[in-house]
Here is the input.
Amino acid sequence: MNISRLGLLLVLQVLCAAPSGAQDAVPAAQALLEQFDELYRSTGTAARIEIKIERPKKVRTMQMRSWSEGEDKALVVIDAPARDAGTATLRVGSNLWNYLPKISRTIRVPPALMMGAWMGSDLTNDDLVRESSYAHDYSVTGVGPSEEPPGWQVDLAAKPEVPGLWERVEVVFGRTEQLPVLVRYYDRKGRLSRTMQLEEIKKMGERRIPTRIVIVPEREASTRAQPREGRRTVLTYLHVEFDVELDESLFSLAQLERRR
Amino acid sequence: MAANSTLRLAWRGLGRNRKRAALAIAAIGLGQFAFLATAGIMRGYADHYFDSVTGPLVGHVQIVAPGWREERAVDQTLDNVEAMLAEIRGQSQVARAVPRIYAPVLAALEEDGFVGMVVGADPALEGVANGLLGSEELAGLLGDGRVLVGKGLARQHGIEAGAELAVVGQDIDGSIASALYEVAAVVESPVELVNSTGIVAGLQDAQALLRMDDEAHEIAVRLHEAEQIDQAADSLGAQPALQGTEIKRWHEIIPQLAGIIKMMDMYSLVVLGIVCLASIAGIANTMMMSTFERRRELGMLLALGANPGRLFRMVATEAVLLGALGVLLGTALGACFAVLTAGSGFDLAELGGEESFEMGFQGVQIASRVYPEVRGTDVLAGVSAVLVTALAACVWPLLHVARLEPVEAMRT
Here is the structure.
């Protein structure tokens, strides 16, 4: 709690000093971003997740287990609904494989499909493999108070040398805790493309984390021939364990196929 | 009698300088030939484009779920397709109606996936000419887990007949759809979409993959006569089973093609305009020269009491005769061109020294070989244009005749 207050004080100090020079804002904002980067990362993370994919005419809910190690290894296995159970996605580095239990096949996702939807959600395959860092891939361009939602907004611009989808990102951190509450992503044409709301902060293990993440595909909903209101993906962490020891073989193709 | 003698005099007038008259006739003839050949090629190309695009893929009229054309989402399906097909086929203008399914998938022979498109097609309907497969033999291979793979896709990923192909996508509920198919054959289809990404499955196999019941993404309708399109679209729109669907005419689906066909018609008109200009120049020049040369003779005829109206008729008849001979020559050349190219056509690419090719347009293959189609209406348009311009071209010489003073003309 002390650290949290210290962080907030730093932000306030920076904000007060902002008129005399934005340079002072950078370190505090940087610390917030680094904390955001590390929020869900650990040497070994195991989680149970529920993903609700909401569409104008239907809602689909999936339950899954996930394991991740560091930044570049992850495994997600779907448990429900029954018809999708056993379907798994393995990520090692920039490679992504899907295991389809119905046909007992593992297929590597080609680069051309990286921007395609992951399991029909508003997350893309690319979201799963991109080693994106708010602290290192973006430059802080501004820090200021946010009214809606209330908090402190950090404006980020993509560094020219870093390839990525987003040209500009706005991260709003809550006033009471240093945790992010809203992220707005703008594409290369400056259009709001996606928003991510981080809600329901709970203590999971030793960490306090937002356990409900709502992803809304803004641009898709507003520019299509028929606006599709009500499209969003809600990801809820049901249980998370950080810094657990995971067997290295968990993240292998052989293990992926043996899971059936 | 007077008409006969006017014609005789006009004929003689042309014969005064045969080389000049022959050159004018040749210029007009070449113009008429150029017009007939251009109109024939353009029409042949336009018809070829039209048949290629509306034939196997688009159809004359398409019926889809609202929004499907923009979104192409797997769950935007037509329900109760069998009832719809029964009503569509009940319309007198309809030659055939085919249901189809399209689903983007990740496909794989081994571990590495690639992008493909499962096209669900009814084997009984797609094996005919103008069908997606165009061959009964190929259509007969479809179904029961057997698929046909487009030539381009097969070449790119080393797919051969007999291979086992895994596909994964999303079904209409958003769940994961996966299936293993046996590749029955690698096919070359007139449809570019099939060649480059197509995995053609039987309609029932595609429905099973996507968990569809009696559903499809589109019904392509081909009419007996393309001209009946508006009437057919209106009567289809009134059918109870088709309420709540989107009914589109081909030119609404592919306005680019409609624009190209219109442009081709305009191009023929431009050539007709050039023919008119050539005729005007050729005839006006010949008639002016001829009238100036006969200034003394015409003056004498006027002095002897000849009716100026008769002189006018003589000059006008000479001009029309010149135009008529030219247009006759051009029409004869055009007829030869039509006869020589009607059966075999000719390859525009080969004319340019290139190899014959097929280009993709709106998802279909269009060959560079063209079959010109010269119509009687083209000949009539050319003849009318040349004769009208012949009369227009003799206005200047006629004005010259009208201003002739007999005594002064005889002195020159």
